[in-house]
Design brief:
Helix content: 40-55%
CATH topology of the largest domain: Aspartate Aminotransferase, domain 2
Strand order of the largest sheet: 2-8-7-6-5-3-4
Low-confidence stretches: none
Mean pLDDT: 96
CATH class of the largest domain: Alpha Beta
CATH superfamily of the largest domain: Type I PLP-dependent aspartate aminotransferase-like (Major domain)
CATH architecture of the largest domain: 3-Layer(aba) Sandwich
Radius of gyration: 21 Å
Number of domains: 2
């Protein structure tokens, strides 16, 4: 879709294409990020560009642990935190640490399809379990699919592409189920929570704490979305301090961070983000765009569940064919992504992290495509 978008923009002009294909945040980082970054550069520090502990600077990990205590509601120390090259780096490190060849990793559909490749990197298999109609996790279906080879379950809340925030009741049921099944199969099933959109939520919704719902859990996040710095590749993972084999996991993760080629997270970014952990972009801008898009598409006749977080909308494809819908929208010079790209046919994703003018300009094209498809 990215390449197709570039072709269309070259052919018709950027101003004549509405590109909703990529989740690439378009807002500028908070001014505090720029100020802090400049301060770190100008003031410097001894050996500031040298090697560091592979897990990250101890003082950075301690600051993040203190932040996690407030966010997750449990006591945790910096030794349980590993600085990583974004959430993608953290996921690959976590899976490399816990997986054996032939193991199985579960996740929910719709979901991020690169999880397939992350599992395959470690000769494991990804099992995608269809969510409920409201995009909540289907805990009972997941329970039936667990086998002796199940090593981990990845969840993503707020969810890309549906925008669903999994409620605490679901997560507690999930934790109880995983605890029971871990005992039954005789191995720990780790719950990995991929949370880069945690701060991008609407209408006062709170993202529940994973650590309070399941002991054998790992929280993974990045600063790509909430600080709007995806190109800086900075994030972290944190493991519950009471998880099974926690010391083995931490030692393994530090080693895997190195041998996978990440070595350690970027030094300058570590020093910068740890000083602005409470900062985020202006989420009200994304909310305004969401409301604009939802109101217009609902009036046209599209069917969808309003996203509770993220900057994605995941409507049903008119007529049920997501590929045909995406192709029809391309004829209107509107770029979206078919739902099968997230493991669910019959839907399509709209990334509304674009200028409001692009959203407004797209409405006539969405209307014409809907009329043709219906």
């Amino acid at each position: 879709m990215f390449e197709r978008g570039n072709q269309m923009k070259e052919e018709f002009g950027v101003e004549n294409v509405c590109d909703f294909s990529l989740g690439n945040p378009d807002l500028e980082p908070p001014s505090s990020f720029t100020r802090t970054l400049k301060d770190k550069i100008y003031r410097g520090a001894p050996n500031m560009h040298g090697y560091m502990p592979n897990a990250g600077y101890p003082e950075v990990r301690s600051k993040i642990a203190a932040y996690i205590e407030k966010e997750q509601g449990i006591r945790i120390s910096g030794r349980n935190v590993l600085m990583t090259c974004g959430a993608g780096g953290a996921l690959n490190v976590a899976l490399k640490t816990i997986l054996n060849p032939g193991d199985m990793v579960m996740t929910s559909a719709p979901g991020f399809m690169e999880y397939f490749f992350y599992a395959d990197n470690n000769s494991a298999v990804l099992d995608m379990i269809r969510s409920k109609d409201d995009f909540d996790l289907d805990v009972e279906k997941m329970e039936r699919r667990i086998t002796k080879y199940t090593a981990a379950l990845i969840i993503n809340s707020p969810n890309n592409p549906s925008g669903k925030v999994y409620p605490e009741s679901t997560l507690r049921a999930l934790g109880e189920m995983l605890d029971k099944k871990s005992r039954e199969i005789g191995r720990t099933i780790y719950l990995i929570s991929d949370e880069p959109y945690r701060k991008i939520v609407y209408n006062g919704i709170q993202v529940p704490s994973i650590f309070s719902c399941y002991r054998n859990s790992i929280v993974i996040t990045s600063f790509s979305k909430d600080l709007s710095i995806p190109g800086e590749r900075i994030g972290y993972m944190a493991i519950h301090p009471e998880a099974d084999a926690v010391d083995d996991f931490l030692n393994g993760a530090v080693l895997c961070n190195r041998i996978l080629g990440f070595v350690n997270a970027p030094a300058l970014m570590q020093r910068t983000v740890c000083d602005i952990l409470d900062e985020t972009v202006n989420v009200d801008v994304y909310k305004k765009r969401r409301d604009m898009l939802c109101a217009a598409l609902a009036e046209i006749g599209y069917s969808f569940t309003e996203p509770e977080g993220t900057f994605y909308l995941f409507p049903k494809a008119p007529g049920g064919d997501d590929l045909k819908t995406v192709e029809m929208l391309q004829e209107e010079r509107i770029l979206t992504v078919p739902g099968r790209g997230f493991g669910v046919k019959g839907y399509f994703r709209i990334a509304f992290c674009v200028d409001e003018e692009v959203i407004q300009r797209s409405f006539d094209g969405f209307k014409r495509a809907f009329q043709k498809l219906s």
